[in-house]
Amino acid sequence: MDELDRSARVLVAGSGGLVGSAVVRALESAGFTDVVGARSAQVDLRDADAAREFVTATAPAVVVDAAARVGGIAANNARPVEFLHDNLRIQANLLDAAHAADTGRVLFLGSSCIYPKFAEQPIREDSLLTGPLEATNDAYAVAKIAGIMGVQSYRREYGRRWISAMPTNLYGPGDNFDLESSHVLPALIRKFHEAARDGSEQVVVWGTGTPRREFLHVDDLAAACVHLLEAYDDPAPINVGTGQDVTIAELASAVARTVGFTGEIVYDTSRPDGTPRKVLDVSKIEATGWKPTIGLAEGLASTYRWYLDNIVVEAGT
Ligand code: GDP
Which domains does the chain have, with CATH numbers? Predict the structure, then answer.
């Protein structure tokens, strides 16, 4: 495939978020000189007219769709309507607007939760739609599956060279550290940090500690996005991950070590575990010549530093 023109205009939808902000950094460090962001405060992509107006005026050659309503297990479980409808609207409006603006390349970002709850591990791309979904995030997953279908439909009907990538659980600078709506990794950084700071004896971790999750640093995902725009052109989604997972209990111990918490870890089994295991088969993306570079211990340490410098400092705690 061809290298993208470094002066082509690239629109990153969702540039205020964890993923979008990392994609902007990665594009700029890869030499792209005309990167335009779209934050939710700037344009409400749930509004079809607003989305079309913004994308038409921007006239991007490339769109990366990192705009989504996202959240951890509790938020997904509690607000399925918003996770379904906001995401359906955002992605449909963005794809329609990108088509109207004659955008040649679109990268749609989904999630590893699109795969069946009991998919064979590590999860291959072709296990999509072969079994029932995990109930705590089925609404979000169905929306993301519809997004993949949107990309495939534009390819089939209009010959668009658009693609979809499915990242595993992501973390890094710019993450959401709110304890009710966040994912597990930022939640544990905050819980263990506050426990160490306050001299608490215990930290409560949700569920049984036995579910297995794979964690990818968002800067690795962003590098993969730039790579895929130049190396991948196929209707099938492509997984982006490390291919390695840990139990939530192992993650909790690693976070405790990172922040210097030496007390006890207790499990609140009234909280859901979610899917038992979710590790991606990454052989397809590796065959295109990409692999992650940031290990979990290193990524935890740098994310904790970011948390201290940005969240703790701002909160004055
Ligand atoms: P998931 O990968 O979609 O299930 O999303 P999460 O990142 O929210 O949760 C992953 C796993 O971590 C689940 O088994 C949760 O129950 C568990 N977990 C443990 N403690 C926490 C916590 O404080 N916050 C969150 N979000 N999850 C936690």
Answer: 9-171+215-240 (3.40.50.720), 184-212+246-279+294-315 (3.90.25.10)
